[in-house]
Amino acid sequence: MKRVKLTVAYDGTAYHGWQFQPGQPTIEGILNWALEDLLHEDTEVIGASRTDTGVHALGNVCVFDTESRIPGEKFAAALNTRLPEDIRIMHSEECEPDFHPRYDAHDKIYEYRITRAKTMPPTKRLYATHIYYPLDVQKMRQAAAYLVGRHDFAAFCSAGSTVKDTVRTVLAVDVLEENEDIVIRVKGEGFLYNMVRIIAGTLINVGSGRMKPEAVKDAVLGASRELAGPTAPAQGLTLIEINYD
Amino acid sequence: MKRVKLTVAYDGTAYHGWQFQPGQPTIEGILNWALEDLLHEDTEVIGASRTDTGVHALGNVCVFDTESRIPGEKFAAALNTRLPEDIRIMHSEECEPDFHPRYDAHDKIYEYRITRAKTMPPTKRLYATHIYYPLDVQKMRQAAAYLVGRHDFAAFCSAGSTVKDTVRTVLAVDVLEENEDIVIRVKGEGFLYNMVRIIAGTLINVGSGRMKPEAVKDAVLGASRELAGPTAPAQGLTLIEINYD
Known about the structure:
- The structure is a homodimer.
- In chain A, a hairpin with an 8-residue loop joins strand 2 and strand 3 (about 55-65).
- Chain A is built from 5 helices and 10 strands; from the N terminus they run βαββαβββαβββααβ.
- Helices cover about 20% and strands about 30% of the residues of chain A.
- Chain A is globular and about 60 Å long.
- The two termini of chain A are about 25 Å apart.
- In chain A, strands 1, 2, 3, 4, 5, 6, 7, 8, 9 and 10 form a 10-stranded mixed sheet that branches.
- Chain A folds into 2 domains: about 1-95, Pseudouridine synthase I, catalytic domain, N-terminal subdomain (Alpha-Beta Plaits); about 105-245, Pseudouridine synthase I, catalytic domain, C-terminal subdomain (Alpha-Beta Plaits, 2-Layer Sandwich).
- In chain A, helix 3 crosses helix 4 (about 195-210) and helix 3 (about 135-145) runs parallel beside helix 5.
- Chains A and B meet through strand 4 of A and strand 4 of B.
């Protein structure tokens, strides 16, 4: 028995998110199907991050256990021949048998992409959110600074969540400009449900002038959902990488 | 009666190219349908560039004539509400009644995008070609220089074409690096059928070492299709803009 670690990239457009749901196309469901097809063993993936419907990933991580004699590094190619083109195993390797992709993660990096243009360019529509009004990037950066650190992020957690401890540590929030795009790059030790999309929605409100940068500080201190901005649309979000010690 | 000029962007993934074909989804067909729905007039677009199946555009151009009193600049929004999200009118304006989008074009700019990675990132799969082996960018640039100028590009024209005069003027071929991507940017006064895709396929062969840079000079002088490289896949190609005097 060995444990294999997979680095998984996907275009989330066609999927109902990561987590298995009967009768729905999900990343986890497709990966388990491909493993069954390859190994004919009773094994399932354990994932690091349960991304939502329409959210993309360049580097989500999962593991599975197997009796197979296939070397760990060969699983990427063997699985990719069985997977649709919008899901790719970017890397595979054998890992420690007690390695856990979620609990052992040191930090995760997400990017939220905003395209500023009068009209949304069609080739970006699946990977960015369109904002046609002006955004003040300096104010967005000022607001972003209030999010960095160990805080109660209750204001940045969707109502549907059942977690009790809403304290999380955000290591960095960078607001970058790439031609007509703004990329909000968030690095954190862990995230609440919809937290990065609410951070994006809040920073968009600051950029447009609907919220003052200081209101983000108040949202962190007030710890109440209505103090933060709306949840930005899923398709702008990409899980870039998960780092381990 | 007035003539209106449209700047059209599209994700070509779902379409059988620009040109109308009965029973197939095409950009021209959808645009004509949207005009009919808006105007209830007998009018059709005249396009500048008949892009192939799977080829994208940021700025293709077309015109149509109308008796409508809608101001030229209002057509973009009026048509966008009737178009699918993968086709967008980026700009509309009234133009001279004798303006012709193809014959009056001074030059067109295309980009061919190559992604170098061990595994194709799924979010790029519709907009780039995957090359997993190393490419020598300096040699590609050396070869590209032989293409610039007024030459017989018969070696860079697909066999299916019926044009007799295969002399064209290429104004620039730049080989740019953007992180893991190589972008071949071609500016020309006019192009033969599949010419940019054959230029891309040829420069990829030079980059990989299958062809020497000087072989591109020989292909131009020899004017025979088998002297150039293969036709690179459609999805890497985007029509960036068409310039008028």
